[in-house]
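Task 17 of the worksheet. Students: predict the tertiary structure of the chain below and write it out as structure tokens. Keep your answer in the requested format; marks are given for formatting as well as content.
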Amino acid sequence: MNMIIKPVLTEKMTAQGEKLNRYGFIVDPRANKLQIKDAVEAAYNVVVTDVNTINYNGKVRSRYTKAGMLTGRSNHFKKAIVTLKEGDLIDFYGNI
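Model answer:
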């Protein structure tokens, strides 16, 4: 089972990566912190010192259409913020 779904590439996470050496990932909701740590270390060849996880509930979204108002929900997801050892870094933009 692949624990890491995708990296979070927002302005806020990029700033944290530069200042605090922290990187964000959307991960499998069933993954625990030890599994996330092992997956990041294996995928990016770095040393992870700390893992924080956040569970997000999906937002209720509604929009007006010709057929009336449609209501739906965005997906639930789990986000992990990993802190790397001093000197390690992950370059998401290296192979563009």
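Marker's comment: Helices lie at 11-20, 33-44. The chain has two helices and six strands.
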